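Worked example (supplementary).
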Amino acid sequence: MTDALLDPWRPRAGQWDRAAAQHLFRRAGFGARPAELELALSEGLEATLVRVFADGTPPELLASIQPLLPAGELEHLQAWWMALILEGGSPLRERMTLVWHDHFATSNDKVGDVRLMYAQNELFRVHGLGDFRTLLKAVARDPAMLRWLDGDSNRRGHANENFARETLELFTLGRGNYGERDVQEAARAFSGWGISGRTSLFLPEHHDDGEKTLLGHTGRFGCDEALDLVLEQPTCARHVARVLLEAFVMPNPEEAWVTELGDVLREADWSIERALKALLASRLFFSPASRRARIAGPVELVAVAVRTIGARVAPRRTAHWASRMGQALFRPPSVKGWDGGRAWIHAGAWIARHNALVELVSDDAMQDELARFLDSSEREDLPASALGRLLPEGAGQPFTDALERAARHANDVAEARKAVVALVLTSPEFQLF
Amino acid sequence: MLLTRRRLLVDGVRITALVPGLALLGPRAGIAGERVLVVVQLTGGNDGLNTVVPFQQDAYYRLRPTLAQKRSNLHALDGDHGLHPSLRELAPLFGEGRLTVVQGVGYPHPDRSHFRSLEIWHTGDPEGIHTGMGWLGRMADQIAAAAPGAMPAVHVGDEDLPLALLGRSMSAPSLSDERSLRLSSVPGLESERLNLLGESAGAPGDLAFLRAAARNAYEVSTRMERALERERSAFYPDLGLARKLRLIAKLIAGGFDTRIFLVTLGGFDTHARQAALHAALLEELARSIGAFERDLSSCGAGERVLTLVFSEFGRRAEENASRGTDHGAAAPVLVLGGPGKGGLLGSAPDLARLSEGDVGYTTDFRALYTAIERNWMGLDPSCAIPAFEFGG
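After joint prediction of all chains, the assembly is encoded as:
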């Protein structure tokens, strides 16, 4: 019963173009630097998919956070993660780390410990493309999560249902797929975990080892047994599939796709990587309806803008930009994560987007990169060059006219480059990923 | 309750989706001229007993051999209490009925961690049920749902956005100075950025939404700049808090539509050698607020601005061996303007009956929140605790 939409896309001649390649890089990673894009265009879709799934982040970069952790400053952690996003060689892994950070949304505002936030981030990085069951069970005993959702105070006789409720509602099944009793019983099964130093540990004396009835099954379930029961629910794979579709394809995906990707996920033995291999190569993913169908979040917007024009910007600065736009890493507004979509956009956030992107192109250090990026010294060529490289899908006539006037009226060619690129980056069209 | 709020928001978004031109570009729904809330956070735990001093209680002098304030130096509020000598500029405001002091404000089972207690004040949620959203953010969400395109809440300062301002859909911008929301530009951008937006009508859904949002944002920025342009002659002392309040007064006087402001004044964690430090901080507070209040009344906005001054906790009644004080519990809250008619409200701390060495709470801070949210701002309150009665 395979819906043709998840079949692999076989581009006909000319269909694997700049727009298609950028679409893949924007969604599966954080955009492509100019050289990466050229390589992708010459190598084709299959080879590019292999590169997207590659793990190439240098170990030194991954380890570079270690000497900074003792300072306990969240800014260091934010900057380090942005460095992995901007400079690392594991685009999809970092993209999934961000997806899980939004899904299992945990904020340092309550955790109050940068080392714990780092450890959770590593957990998402290590397990993010692996077996979802392993990921979920690791999250259930992750110290930051134990503190965030009060798992560390969930004890026999003094149940705290916070983690149990959010696990069923947000992390695995969704509302309407469990009862109030299931929340209470799951909380009992999850009881007994605590934090010692910065590691979690199981304290049998605080665990409620009595009989529980959860989702129609009865037994003396502990944490993992309870999660296995949750994972067996048919809606669980659909719930995870929906997360992937919203992150990679479009908001409000059709139910048929959710069902189909959920089936793929179960057939793939819960391997996120295998499910994504199907999704990111699919006709659905490359279909016109999926392109430019999401309003970019701040982190992806900043990273894609920087990488697409081939800029080098201090990661700390980019993290700061994203925070001002409303996405401070490690500080999601609630356990529901960032609302995303249109909720990203309000007056203050738009001004923050505008200003960050203008700052990016007006930086003196950027002028050589801009010249290389646009690859022309003729100001008449600049509008077409900028559009072709940043919005290859094209934009309307008023848009093109505005770019041409800006290029014509600039005092010199350097100024024309800045104006043209700033106009495209700050346009509504460019905010659509 | 959460559901209701979300539904409201969804409706707000739907309105924008259907008629972007009208909802986002039309005249602001009469927000300018509405009531305003300014929250001043004294970060670190302000020593309430040395802010509003219970000078008739012998225990005060016994518990604080070096830190107690002499009665003759205080600005008496009634026969039993006086303001710290450094709060000189607040005394006339109390006399005019502009300053209301609510004593003994706190919450059950006080938490003595700065972090946790601030979180409790910011979320209005001592039980830690709803993680992550602030009480001011919740109000901003409601305002934004009713008036899309407005900028309901603003944080003035350099620090990270305080949790209090985090809402579900609104995240308030931080203004570190008057230029913060000014649009950056490069030559050529300014003249063309609106041309490039084309028509919203006819564009596919999200693109139309983004175009309308962009137009609105540029318009907000222009309006803010215009509001800030007007020079005001009001005198402000050269102090950090005064500079922040001055920016707020300019926005209010200039007719800008923000209804919620948050500023912080840090340094109140006075564990050692407290006397000089605390005196300087209170002086900054009083002089800044004094100038702000004078400025507001000179531009006729005093009647529609309520300023709330709080700290995450008070300090231990007994001073420590370093001539400082450690983390405590309940403390007075100051309210300027608003429904208050002045006076000393709440129950005075009884130093003969401390709870674990601290002043216990007699007024739940959430009752003040309810009064502000519902009675002052005209919005849905965060919790079911009845509103504090300001009397008068």
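Two points are worth noting when inspecting this output. Residues 1-30 of chain B have pLDDT under 50 and may be disordered. Chain B is about 35% helix and 15% strand.
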